[in-house]
């Protein structure tokens, strides 16, 4: 029996934001700025791992993808446009309702589920993503183990999460929530994971970390890949061998 990973208070917090998840100027504005950068990283990792030409529009054609903690589909929809057979799961039913409605409006066929990851129908996926989620779950080690259990042999797992530094406490928690860039109560700094801590959880689940990249502020674009990991970072892992 898999242990529960959903924190009910976190699920309720994000479920309350579902109505304007797709508004780039609403409560999820920060995610809209992060998403293109995260997607660029995911695409780079896909191309490198499966030797896909960077000009190929459908880099995930013939592959399956699972986005865990998908919200209303900000990442799941681009993955579907890359040709993947995409499944999304989120702790908040309100988010899944918004995700289904938006995908239908875009003509995208994405399988969406609400609830615990362990309740998904048995399946393993070529690509498993979980962006800004591990810091919100009740049991990070159990959660990473469940992500790994969903990763197919030869697949990729890609995560992003804030780092637990004074820089992230100042900018992500105190400043961002105070000025309204992030809804109040979104972040608990004590739950943030340092890169070595997340790597240890990934390795404890039997995977190996093959790439780690900073996601740092940019005056021109809001965020950029590379540079300092002090605020946020992305990690790619796969099965050894």
Structure description:
- The structure is a single chain.
- This protein has helices at 8-15, 29-50, 76-81, 93-106, 140-149, 166-179, 195-204, and strands at 64-68, 85-90, 111-114, 125-131, 151-162, 208-218, 222-225, 232-238.
- With 241 residues, the protein is of the alpha/beta class.
- The protein has a single domain (8-238), classed as Rossmann fold, CATH 3.40.50.
- The protein has an 8-stranded mixed beta sheet.
- Helix 4 (93-106) links the parallel strand 2 (85-90) and strand 3.
- The protein is globular and about 45 Å long.
Task: Summarize this entry quickly.
This protein has helices at 8-15, 29-50, 76-81, 93-106, 140-149, 166-179, 195-204, and strands at 64-68, 85-90, 111-114, 125-131, 151-162, 208-218, 222-225, 232-238. It is an alpha/beta fold and 241 residues long. It has a single domain (8-238), classed as 3-Layer(aba) Sandwich (Rossmann fold), CATH 3.40.50.150.
The mean pLDDT is 89
- Strand-pairing-aware structural class: alpha/beta
The CATH topology assignment is Rossmann fold
User: Main sheet, how many strands, which sense, barrel?
Assistant: 8 strands, mixed
Kindly report the name of the CATH homologous superfamily: Vaccinia Virus protein VP39
């Amino acid at each position: 029996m898999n242990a529960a990973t959903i924190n009910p208070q976190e699920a309720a917090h994000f479920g309350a934001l579902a109505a304007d998840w797709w508004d780039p100027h609403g409560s999820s504005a920060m995610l809209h700025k992060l998403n293109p950068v995260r997607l660029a990283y995911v695409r780079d990792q896909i191309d490198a791992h499966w030797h896909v030409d960077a000009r190929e529009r459908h880099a995930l054609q013939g592959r399956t993808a699972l986005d865990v903690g998908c919200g209303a589909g900000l990442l799941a929809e681009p993955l579907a446009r890359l040709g993947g057979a995409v499944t999304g799961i989120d702790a908040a039913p309100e988010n899944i309702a918004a995700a289904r409605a938006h995908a239908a409006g875009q003509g995208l066929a994405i399988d969406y589920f609400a609830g615990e990851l362990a309740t998904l129908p048995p399946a393993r996926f070529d690509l498993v993503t979980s962006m800004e989620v591990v810091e919100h779950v009740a049991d990070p080690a159990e959660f990473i183990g469940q992500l790994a259990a969903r990763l197919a042999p030869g697949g990729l797992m890609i995560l992003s999460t804030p780092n637990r530094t004074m820089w992230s406490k100042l900018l992500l928690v105190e400043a961002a929530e105070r000025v309204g860039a992030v809804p109040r109560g979104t972040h608990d700094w004590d739950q943030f994971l340092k890169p070595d801590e997340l790597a240890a959880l990934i390795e404890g689940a039997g995977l190996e970390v093959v790439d780690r990249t900073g996601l740092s502020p940019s005056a021109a674009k809001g965020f950029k890949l590379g540079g300092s990991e002090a605020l946020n970072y992305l990690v790619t892992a796969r099965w050894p061998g």
